[in-house]
Design brief:
The structure is a homodimer of 218-residue chains.
Chain A lengths: L2 E5 L3 H12 L3 E6 L2 H7 L5 E4 L5 H6 L7 E4 L5 H14 L3 E5 L3 H9 L4 E3 L1 H14 L6 E5 L2 E7 L9 H4 L1 H5 L2 E9 L2 E5 L12 E6 L1 H5 L5
Parallel strand pairs in A: 1-2, 1-4, 2-3, 4-5, 5-6
Antiparallel strand pairs in A: 7-8, 8-11, 9-10, 9-11
The complex binds adenosine-5'-triphosphate (2 copies).
The site of one adenosine-5'-triphosphate has 18 residues of chain B, from helix 1.
Amino acid sequence: MPKVAVIGLGRFGTALSRRLSAAGAEVLAIDRDGRLIDEIKDDVDVAVRLDATDRQALLSQEVDKVDVAVVAIGENFEASLLTAVVLKQFGVPHVVCRAQTAIHAEIFRQIGADEVVQPEQETGAHLARRLANPRLVDAFRLADGLTLIEFSAPAEFHEKSIRHLELRAKYDVNLVVIRRRQGEAQRVFSPSPEEVIQPDDVLVMIGSDEALARLPKE
Amino acid sequence: MPKVAVIGLGRFGTALSRRLSAAGAEVLAIDRDGRLIDEIKDDVDVAVRLDATDRQALLSQEVDKVDVAVVAIGENFEASLLTAVVLKQFGVPHVVCRAQTAIHAEIFRQIGADEVVQPEQETGAHLARRLANPRLVDAFRLADGLTLIEFSAPAEFHEKSIRHLELRAKYDVNLVVIRRRQGEAQRVFSPSPEEVIQPDDVLVMIGSDEALARLPKE
Ligand SMILES: Nc1ncnc2c1ncn2[C@@H]1O[C@H](COP(=O)(O)OP(=O)(O)OP(=O)(O)O)[C@@H](O)[C@H]1O
Ligand SMILES: Nc1ncnc2c1ncn2[C@@H]1O[C@H](COP(=O)(O)OP(=O)(O)OP(=O)(O)O)[C@@H](O)[C@H]1O
């Protein structure tokens, strides 16, 4: 299991630390605010109060021996940057930096950060994609030659079970989820082979572009 | 195209507004800080400076007529809450609220928010999943509780057929396609149950976060 140091216990660092621990990673949580250390110490392997710009303090906690270090300090860019530089000097294999803006992100990359996250911007982009497209996704390129499409169930699929439709054998596509209205709400579920397609079902499928193009359109 | 009001132009609200506009949605951007309005006005349909707790001001901008309203005010919980309540009173069909913590999120739901986002916590959870699982190639949230992941085939899956692995029965995940190197090229295909997993195969799967977390990691 990877050994991960999380430096900075704001909402991002705290959520990250707890989820990592829950997933079985070994977590070393660091912050200079003692109250945050007290709040998290039962949820991680080690929680220690120190100033991340203090190189000796980091070495005393063996931060140079971790597999991954995440610099989750928010507002203090200078401290973030200095910490990231020190971590790369220690030889930490994978250093992730949280950046406030695209320009900050670029600076982190230039000093050697292996990965940069921008929580607010990434969540904004993700929400925008979902809202602009009130159907789950319209067509989303997953990888070369692989697309995810949303497709309202054509008439010839209505009242047939998924097993009966033999989508994989006949069309070489994989039906991954169905979106179905239930009164006011919408249910999104991964169907079993026995599920019967209903009119108005929206089928979310994955396949190559050629395969998807062969699906019946009416 | 949906008409979306974004109230609060911090990093989250600004990224959301620009991406929505780029995706073709009609965007009404609101903030009480005039400088933020100036910075964004060329990127959205309408940018207007007003205090979101001022009901008359909202009505004068026809915020009651939008399809979606996103309350992206950060630190001022009271203003966020009041604004959300007013939007639901106006009858805005879909109100999304940005929450600072799980407790704030719960309060927003109780006053009628249709959706709640927590950018820092969601990004922390997403990063935790990728870091705890170095086999994870990519992960994409499809909808509440449902994620698509790309996952390099762990050793215990090698040389076994998909039927034999019983992924749905054992892990409650749906293997949608396999990506396999073939010489220089890459083949992406929807596998039959007889397909045998090879080392280096990348498995693209869909399931709930809990189900995906149970997949073998080595
Ligand atoms: N030099 C430092 N050494 C250790 N911890 C630090 C240092 N500077 C800041 N921190 C810690 O980093 C944490 C996160 O910083 P801050 O609260 O500014 O970020 P934020 O962007 O508001 O976080 P979030 O959005 O994740 O809630 C704070 O708990 C703070 O104590
Ligand atoms: N009553 C209000 N009416 C209109 N705008 C408001 C009101 N209160 C706050 N705002 C605006 O909301 C915006 C976002 O708030 P704030 O900067 O506190 O959030 P944040 O959590 O730091 O944002 P982010 O993390 O997205 O950068 C600010 O630009 C602020 O001017």
